[in-house]
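Notebook p. 47: complex prediction with copper (II) ion.
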Amino acid sequence: MKKYILTSTLAALLTLGGLSVPALAGPEDVVVENAWSRASIGMNRPGAAYMTIRNAGDEPVTLIGLKTPLAMMPEIHETKTNAEGVSSMSPAGEITIAPGESVALEPGGLHAMLMRLQEPMTEGETFPLTLLFDGGGEVTVDVPILGIAARGPQD
Amino acid sequence: MRRRAILGYGAAGVGAVALMLFVGWWRVDGPGAPAPVGQLPVALTEMDFRLTDHEGNAVGPETLIGRPTMAFFGFTYCPDVCPTTLSDISGWLDDLGDEADEMNVVFITVDPERDTVETMAEYVGYFHPAIRGWTGPEEQIARVADGFRATYERVPTESGDYTMNHTASVFLFAASGRFVTMIDYHEAREFAVPKIRRALAEEMEGAT
Ligand SMILES: [Cu+2]
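Predicted complex, structure tokens below:
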């Protein structure tokens, strides 16, 4: 914690000094595991991708967006189910991951929503998905496309 | 002295009222409350709707009487909850094996505008073969949802399309059409499969 405050102060000083600040918690510390998605029927329906994003560094990282040639509008979404059992979905906003922590994108919770597909998602293929982090860092993963009825990365 | 006695009675009175209020709360809203009957589906025998299954057959609540039924709502443009529920159900059916053969499994769309009979046929084809897809005119879908005490709502998305918020629970009915229980979204398989067995067992009791 103390170290975090110190580095933040340092960053603030460097910024004030007009120097460009490298992403302190660089995406080289971000580990993406168990990425998977389901095949689509055609291109009219939105797709969804899932994965675990782990912050292996010692600074917090903030996921601010997604980018992929597969979809014009990729966005982190969150599905919520209320006390009456009604499910709804909405943009999740920015997601900050503390050092040593993971965020799971999994069915029924957070997901990478792939809106306006540019091509069908075909079982057996993969597509590149880039995670955009605060500070300009990027991490690109190859996401395997599994069957429509897949339940997890192992299916 | 007198005044103190009055105070005493007053305190006892307040205590009695508080107890009554507590008992009332316990029975109405508290742990002693009965299940919220108004929020549970009515029996299939009390429902009235006309839909079409993914093979073009006319279907209604009577189609489901005589066999236990597992039913749920969704739509084929749903990227997350619906394929997950459909694959969960496919997994439960695999676990049940032969037991599941004598069961109705119905996926009812809440998005009839996009989910035509042909669309439903293509979609359900990717999941367990026991799953039937039902669609129909919007006002008939509304009647089904009403009988199930389910809700759905069309919501525009930033991409210019729309999505549907909807009840994601899986409903279980006995062969008689009586509502048995529901499986909430996110419920673990070790709870789901015994619940389905319970609905199947009710059929056995009715048969013998
Ligand atoms: Cu979504």
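Notes: Residues 36 and 144 of chain A are 5 Å apart (CA to CA). The two ends of chain A are 40 Å apart (CA to CA).
Next step: compare against the earlier run before touching the bench.
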